[in-house]
Amino acid sequence: MIAQAICALIQIGEHTSPTTFGISPAEAARTGLTITSGHTLAFWIYCFFVLALTAIGGAAALAVHSILTNPALPAVQTSTYGSSATDARPTELSPRGPLPPRQNY
């Protein structure tokens, strides 16, 4: 996408020769024909979507970065139930009703 944007910016500054359309420069000057390079509505819509995609990607990257580097956020517990004697089972209900008390053998 960046390469397309660079090419578009270069093409804005380039002069379009009448010979591209099969007309000699002398004939174009005599008839008052001028050829300009412009961008269509589709190009500007494409630019808008590229900018929006870039903004969304940047916001997502910043959100992930802030989540990973913010020490004030609670740590995620990655242990499984029963991995140590200090682990507690959740007190919420399971689909079959309340969980029975944990038994240590």
Rg, rounded, reads 32 Å
What spatial form do the alpha-carbon principal axes imply? Answer: rod-shaped
Instruction: Indicate the mean pLDDT.
Output: 76
Helical stretch tally: 3
The helix content is: 40-55%
* Measured distance between first and last alpha carbons: 62 Å
Uncertain ranges: none
Which band does the percent of strand residues land in?
A: under 5%
Summarize the biggest pleated sheet. 2 strands, antiparallel
Provide the spatial order of strands within the biggest beta sheet.
1-2
Helix and strand sequence: HHHEE
The total count of strands amounts to 2
Briefly note the structural class of the backbone: mainly alpha
Please describe what this structure looks like.
With 105 residues, the chain is mostly helical. Among the domains are: 1-37, no CATH class; 38-68. It contains 3 helices and 2 strands. A hairpin with a 2-residue loop joins β1 and β2. The radius of gyration is 32 Å and the shape is rod-shaped.
Concise summary:
With 105 residues, this protein is mainly α.
